[in-house]
Amino acid sequence: MNTQWIHDVLHYDPHLSAVSFLVNSIHLVVLVQKSMRTSSTNIILLAIAVSNLAYMTYPIIDALKDIYNSMKPCILPDSYAYVIFSWISYTVQDDVRRCEAFLSLAMASIRTFVLKYPMKYDAATSVSFGSKTCLILFLLSSIISSIHFLTTQINPVNYLKLRCKKGFSNDTSAIMYVLEPSTLGMWNQSLLTRVHMVLDAFFSKIFPAVLFPIQTLLLIFQIRKVKSKSRNKMFSDPNQNKNSATTKLVFLNTIVYVTSTLPSGIFYVLHSYDIAWLVEVNLADFVFALRFLTSLMTLTHFPICLAMSTQYRSTVLGLLRFKKESGTTVENF
Fold this sequence. Notes:
Blueprint: H1 4-10, H2 13-31, H3 40-70, E1 74-75, H4 80-116, H5 121-124, H6 127-151, E2 152-161, E3 163-164, E4 173-181, H7 183-227, H8 240-271, H9 275-281, H10 283-297, H11 301-308, H12 310-319, E5 321-323, E6 329-331
Antiparallel strand pairs: 1-3, 2-4, 5-6
């Protein structure tokens, strides 16, 4: 099976990560403003932006490391410190990607709940409720990610003969460190590793991918129900533009998450049972390509919020201006 096109696409992953990091940094600056930290959904959006930044950091650093190594006369293996950094970074990426799924579901649930029970609007949209939700979901996600540390360890391997550029000696060698299954991870035919992969597949990928469409359908039903009642409080609420932006993000997350994550969940389940078959059909390459789609989706949060939310646009305009003591504003050039 020819998967060269997938590798060609993934070649641009560091470039996409760099652009996404820049866009999400701007998005984060807007969301941390006092005028934006006024509701639970905005707090969740803030947590999602932080998750996206954490996810995009490692590909950028890894690409810069490769560029730096390419300028050396000999290609060196990764140092022990960098292997530890990669180990931690992979766990963080796994954690924040799962956490983003949980947060997106929470945002959709809050949106649906507020539409269904407008009398409980204040409680469900309070900043404290959003902060507690983010903290609880992060802790739950971290429990699954922590198993990764228990099932893997860093081991030194035999000295590796270095590949040097023309004109340099190839007699130099260096020790190489690799990430391998730990003793606990290999125990009882890799039982804990398999359990971790199955838990990760269901809780991080399959369940969210199934719940997203269900939650979206419930949200659509509630929106139509609210629109049919012109006197409903939420229908005339001044924050309707902000809620509309939240709804758009929910729809977008549903489409992209089901497309990119459900196949990954199936891959993880199959991988826990039969590794050889997956390698033979190169299924992992397709999973990596779908992750590229997930990275691409993170670029849309900023423009959607900017286009749909009056509160968001006002905050952006406020950041682009200097305020004088007299109260007038001067454009920041």
